[in-house]
Amino acid sequence: MLQSVQKGFLVGLKTTWTLGKVIFPVTLIVSLLQYTPVLPWVISLITPLMNIIGLSGDAAIPIVLGNLLNLYAGIGAILTLDLTVKEVFIIAVMLSFSHNLLIESGVALKVGVKLWVILAVRIGLAFFSALIINLVWKGGSEMARYGFIPQNETELTGWGAILLDGLQKAALGIFQLALIVIPLMIAIQILKDLKWLAVFSKWMAPVTRMLGMKENTSTTLAAGLLFGLAFGAGVMIQAVKEDGVSKKDVTLAFIFLVACHAVVEDTLIFIPLGIPVLPLLLIRLGVAIVLTLAVAYFWRRADLSKRKEATYEH
């Protein structure tokens, strides 16, 4: 048991270092950009798109902040705006598909998934889902009532204070990551050594097979579903190394997870916004299953045609 704890602790430290090299600079840079003309410029660029998906120009603020930072930043911005229930629901669905793009895309690259795949899927799902909801849902015109009032943050003055605030946020991000990843890696290592993960893989096998993946992808899938892409990445990186998960399977797992990850946390944090969260969860889960099945199907077709061509050549 002690050996398992030691090994898990070392793996956790190594993983925190690997992910920290992505999270620290990204958090620092985006924190600094908030005090420059860059973010307002990005917001002004996407404001014309808002009307197409049934949103006011103000909605660009939480969408940009949520995508560049995280869901909490997006939700914080929503709480400062007067929006209808329909608008808040559309933003929530968009942000549940597409948030924390810089860090989570960096994580995807570490695992070995192509950047364009992740960005195309996440941004595409966000805008397509918003378009559909806007066309289909005719209700939700009443003003949203938020469950709590955001605290007023003290305004920072001077680049010294801004830089210090950015460094603190980045360091806190790494600390929070370590608090989750290290105990998680220790627990995973103990489960591996006790052979419980093998049992779990067999239990998950029908689900992973249905989605077009092999059994050894189950740890990666479960980690992302429960802990999210950024926090679950530690388990994913380790699973890809140790379980021999193929490039195809890890790509399919990530396609599923970009649509539906951190299902408990990412659903519950939207409750204070006064929107129906069960439909939000069901939309994410449904889209993730359909999208992964479709990609797996076309991938199989492409592989079969390649094999046939190779056979004819011989």
Describe the structure in your own words.
Keywords: Membrane, Transmembrane, Transmembrane helix. It comes from Cytobacillus gottheilii. This is Nucleoside transporter/FeoB GTPase Gate domain-containing protein. The chain crosses the membrane at residues 22-47, 59-81, 88-109, 115-137, 170-191, 220-240, 252-275, 281-299. The relative contact order is 0.13. The protein has 13 helices and no strands. The longest helix is centred in the C-terminal third of the chain and has 37 residues, at 277-313. α1 packs across α6. It has helices at residues 2-33, 38-50, 60-68, 71-78, 85-97, 101-111, 115-136, 159-193, 196-210, 218-242, 247-259, 265-268, 277-313. It is mostly helical.
Report the biggest beta sheet as strand number plus sense, adding barrel if it closes. Answer: none
Overall mean pLDDT score? 82
- Percent strand: under 5%
The rough form would be described as globular
Structural class: mainly alpha
Q: How many helix segments?
A: 13
* Low-pLDDT segments: 148-152
- The sequence of SSEs as H and E is HHHHHHHHHHHHH
**Total DSSP E strands:** 0
Radius of gyration equals 21 Å
Assembly state: single chain
Q: What's the N-to-C terminus distance?
A: 54 Å
Helix coverage percent = over 70%
Transmembrane segments: 22-47, 59-81, 88-109, 115-137, 170-191, 220-240, 252-275, 281-299
Keywords: Membrane, Transmembrane, Transmembrane helix
Domain Nucleoside transporter/FeoB GTPase Gate: 17-99, 175-264
Protein name: Nucleoside transporter/FeoB GTPase Gate domain-containing protein
